[in-house]
């Protein structure tokens, strides 16, 4: 049986191609803080709009930032960067491929050819000192050599995902020499990056947390440029990782607790509740609505352990049996996902799918019977306060804990673990799913995430229906419950929560 995390962990992942040293991570501009985590400390930067005046100094040598792409992240990051740098001599320009359907929307948000803030992607690349690559993963894999060839000497390459590193390793390639390579990776979808940044106008520090990585630093300014980028996005706190570690945790997470597992959980629970006699609306409330609503809110406001503690004795007994029945099959699947991401299998499947599907639309998952009840449930939300369902809570919390334990065993730093496994889920993705529904999220996310959710969601669904739910009829495993109650993740999550201002993370309208 897979074991809970029970001891030491490595504070950073090692990367054979990283060209930085520990001294690279010292900032000349920002005052860094030390955050206490289980068995050690981590150095982080606390964000806030009071740091905006330091951005020109931190963006040393950068006079033009090119944001390549206008997907959800490009759309949010370009706007946040532009707004944060208003009044400075740094220009933010959006680069799009010829004939891009996104050009009209970029113009509608103030990026235009007339003022030089909108142009051809390769021309923008050639004219920028920091080139932030936010096009789709498969497109980046196909076109990165063109982009690299267009870079001006000494320009810094910026990424918000480590997918390209994985692709380069698979194909024997590398980043071009003489260029800094940094990453700032918001722990949330583009809509949340923009929406919570806008809240920061009223509540200083509101935003989405980000990790940062320095993969190559030829001029010694990469760390401050990365931190400035994160501050300009509005991140409440920024924590250090490596490009490899970010890639692994991000790809695994979106196939597990961030998206794929959520889909499998709610589908399996809806079927179980319907078979037990619930009508469609009640079954939807006990499954999908419970995960995206009261369970997510409880974790966001009070932590994972509070989900169990807030139940009455009868509900706690149900939670305990379901939690311990679900943990082992969840851990097995998360470990399998991690292995396939780490050895390149998952990356190759994304590239192959892109070649096979091309520009053809993918079929949608929202046609199964449960999703027809979503509109009725959302329409009656104001009638009562939906309580946490203990059975659903046991399944979800066990899956979340399984991912936390797998990341800890694999050596990820605690900031990355709790952000990728908890905070991103409850402060970004689940609120969005609550407003739209899980099926809408799966059908409208990035191609990489969508392919992963469609592949692994049914694996969770089948394992839970076939293994976990029958086992939940038996008494709870007390050793697993003790491990959960004393889990170091509670301490790490509490430390991270202290850095986040109190903001309303709900989604009430379509993104602007």
Report on the architecture of this protein.
The chain is 54% helix and 10% strand. By secondary structure, the protein is α/β, with parallel strands linked by helices. The termini are far apart. Mean pLDDT is 90; it is low at 1-23. The chain has two domains: 22-240, NAD(P)-binding Rossmann-like Domain (Rossmann fold, 3-Layer(aba) Sandwich), CATH 3.40.50.720; 252-497, N-(1-d-carboxylethyl)-l-norvaline Dehydrogenase, domain 2 (Orthogonal Bundle), CATH 1.10.1040.10. Strand 1 and strand 2 (40-46) form a beta hairpin. The chain has a ten-stranded mixed β-sheet with strand order 1-2-10-9-8-7-6-3-4-5, with helices on both faces. It has 21 helices and ten strands. Residues 1-22 are annotated as: Disordered. This is Acetohydroxy-acid isomeroreductase. Keywords: Amino-acid biosynthesis, Branched-chain amino acid biosynthesis, Magnesium, Metal-binding, Oxidoreductase.
């Amino acid at each position: 049986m897979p074991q809970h995390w029970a001891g030491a962990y490595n504070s950073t992942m090692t990367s054979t191609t990283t060209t930085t040293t520990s001294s690279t991570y010292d900032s000349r501009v920002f005052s860094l803080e030390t955050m206490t985590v289980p068995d050690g400390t981590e150095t982080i930067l606390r964000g806030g709009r009071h740091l905006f005046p330091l951005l020109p100094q931190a963006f040393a040598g950068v006079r033009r930032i090119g944001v390549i792409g206008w997907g959800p992240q490009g759309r949010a990051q370009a706007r946040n960067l532009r707004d944060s740098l208003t009044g400075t001599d740094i220009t933010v320009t959006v680069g799009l491929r010829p004939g891009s359907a996104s050009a009209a929307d970029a113009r509608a948000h103030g990026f235009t050819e007339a003022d030089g803030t909108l142009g051809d992607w390769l021309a923008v690349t050639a004219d920028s000192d920091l080139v932030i690559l936010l096009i789709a993963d498969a497109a980046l894999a196909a076109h990165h050599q063109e982009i690299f060839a267009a870079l001006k000497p000494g320009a810094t390459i910026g990424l918000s995902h480590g997918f390209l590193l994985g692709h380069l390793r698979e194909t024997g390639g590398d980043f071009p020499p003489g260029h800094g390579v940094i990453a700032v990776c918001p722990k949330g979808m583009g809509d949340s990056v923009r929406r919570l940044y806008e809240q920061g106008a009223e509540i200083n520090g509101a935003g989405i947390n980000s990790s940062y990585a320095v993969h190559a630093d030829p001029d010694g300014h990469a760390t401050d440029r990365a931190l400035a980028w994160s501050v300009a996005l509005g991140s409440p706190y920024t924590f250090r990782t490596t490009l490899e570690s970010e890639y692994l945790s991000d790809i695994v997470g979106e196939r597990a607790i961030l998206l794929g597992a959520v889909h499998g959980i709610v589908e399996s629970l809806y079927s179980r509740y319907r078979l037990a006699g619930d009508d469609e609306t009640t079954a939807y409330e006990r499954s999908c609505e419970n995960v995206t609503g009261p369970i997510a809110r409880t974790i966001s406001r009070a932590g994972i352990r509070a989900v169990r503690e807030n139940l009455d004795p009868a509900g706690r007994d149900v939670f305990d049996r379901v939690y311990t029945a679900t943990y082992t099959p969840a851990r097995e699947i998360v470990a399998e996902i991690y292995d396939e991401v780490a050895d390149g299998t998952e990356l190759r499947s994304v590239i192959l799918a892109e070649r096979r599907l091309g520009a053809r639309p993918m079929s949608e998952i929202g046609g199964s019977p449960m999703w027809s009840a979503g509109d009725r449930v959302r329409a009656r939300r104001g009638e009562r306060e939906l309580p946490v369902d203990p059975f659903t809570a046991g399944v979800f919390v066990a899956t979340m804990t399984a991912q936390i334990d797998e990341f800890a065993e694999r050596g990820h730093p605690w900031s990355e673990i709790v952000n990728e496994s908890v905070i991103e889920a409850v402060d970004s993705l689940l609120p969005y799913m609550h407003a739209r529904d899980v099926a809408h999220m799966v059908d409208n996310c990035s191609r990489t995430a969508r392919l992963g959710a469609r592949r692994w969601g049914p694996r969770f669904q089948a394992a839970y229906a076939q293994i976990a739910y029958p086992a939940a009829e038996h008494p709870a495993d007390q050793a697993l419950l003790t491990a959960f109650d004393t889990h170091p993740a509670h301490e790490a999550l509490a430390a991270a929560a202290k850095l986040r201002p109190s903001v309303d993370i709900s989604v009430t309208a379509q993104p602007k």
